[in-house]
Amino acid sequence: MNRWEIVILGLCSTLCLGREPFKPRDGSVPFLVYFLSRYRGLCVGTLLSRTTVVTASVCVADPTGSAHDTRAINVVTAATYRHPRRGIRVQVTKIILPKLPNTTAERAYTIQKSPAILLLARKVPDVLAEIPLRPITIDYKGDEALTLHEECLMPGWHFFYKGDKIYPIHKFLLQRNIRVQYLIIVKKSLWCNTVTVKFQKAMTNLGYTGYFDKTASVCVKDPDREAQPCHGMYGAPLVCHGKAVGVLSAPDAQWANCTGFTNLVHLFSAAHIRDFMTCVSGLFAPEFDMNWETFKKDIESDASGVGQYDYLPDMYDRLVDASSSDEV
After folding, report:
1. Which of 32, 156, 254, 282 lies in the 20 to 30 Å Cα band around 226?
2. One GO BP annotation here (predicted)?
3. What pLDDT does residue 174 have?
């Protein structure tokens, strides 16, 4: 095998696998959970310890209201196949949010770009779990340098595919099996300008007239423009270098951008939540030091789900309503 064949094979291992979301090997994402949200239908969470989950604040708090959801929340753990009879449901006993401003507009802006911490009632023993739970390391200090064209991934259940129609019927693909998609970090001014403007417009519609911190988020996209994480993926983590570095949030922007194939991911190391993340960091207890390259090979070892969809068309409209203030 000559030098150029080696280069081509190396390129193919990155590009030829396909950017379309694929079904990962069973048990390779033991840090992922999900729950039904009063405000966003279905939301994703990431385990930071056996009893601590990080998700998006928009999943548990109303940006236009004065208090977070006080109804009981049950997080589904230990299964990556969404079904009423799969997984173990654990009740959330406490929700921890960053300090929120008193004014409605500033509160809405803070909620749409911040994470929330959920404390679970109990630890799930491995013997009971279909997939034993293992929390992931979170980069809340900004130690990981995220460069342009950095390859990261996002796991979840809802993806918008090329050719799908948002209206009048199909809003997104509601998957039963978990999917993982590779995304790369790109220039925000070039690829996320539209979604940034939509986010700012949505916040302006809520009365926010303050400063928009552009350093609090990164722009990610699918290089092949095949699919993108979208509805029902709020709270999904962006995993880079084997650590959770950010969370998919800002639904009032993402909702209207599902045909753009780019996403704004808000960073856990953003300046506006630095004190909050440091304060709650005592709750974090990752149980394994993930080797990034090994993890990517391991997660792809059962990528047999590529192109095999398991969505339920009759459930498209049941989980997500047209609640965005900036729809197309």
Report:
1. 32
2. proteolysis
3. 65
**Three-class HEC string of 260-288:** CCEEEEEECCCHHHHHHHHHHHHHCCCCC
- Distance between CA 324 and CA 167 in Å, rounded? 14
Average pLDDT, the chain: 81
* Structure tokens belonging to residue 13: 């291992």
Decide: helix, strand or coil at residue 257.
helix
Amino acid (1-letter code) at residue 108: A
| Phi, psi of 167, rounded to the nearest 5 degrees | -125, 150
C-alpha gyration radius of the chain: 19
Q: Could you tell me which of 102, 120, 107, 92 has the C-alpha nearest to residue 58?
A: 107
Best CA proximity match to 109, nearest among 198, 209, 188: 209
**Number of C-beta neighbours around residue 214 at 10 A:** 11
Tell whether 310 is covered by a domain.
yes
130 domain-assigned = yes
Tell how far CA 29 is from the center of its chain. Answer: 13
What the block records as the tokens of 256 is 């209207």
Q: What is the DSSP letter of 227?
A: E
Total tally of structural domains belonging to the chain: 1
Asked if residue 90 lies in contact with residue 75, where contact means CB atoms within 8 angstroms, the answer is yes
CA 106 – CA 111 distance, rounded (Å): 9
Its pTM stands at 0.85
Verify cis geometry, omega within 30 degrees of 0, for the bond prior to 168.
yes
- Look at residue 171 and tell me if it is in a domain: yes
Instruction: Check which CATH number belongs to the domain holding 256 and give it.
Output: 2.40.10.10
Provide the strand spans (E) within the chain. Answer: 32-37, 41-49, 52-56, 74-77, 88-96, 115-120, 151-161, 173-186, 217-221, 227-229, 237-240, 243-248, 262-267
Backbone angles phi, psi at 99, to 5 degrees: -60, 125
Which residues, 6 or more positions from 170, have their beta carbon under 8 angstroms from its beta carbon? Answer: 164, 313, 316
186-228 pLDDT, tens digit per residue, is 999 999 998 888 888 888 888 888 888 889 999 999 888 788 8
Would 11 be classed as within a structural domain?
no
For residue 151, what are the domain limits? 17-319
For residues 160 and 258, the answer to whether their CB atoms sit within 8 Å is yes
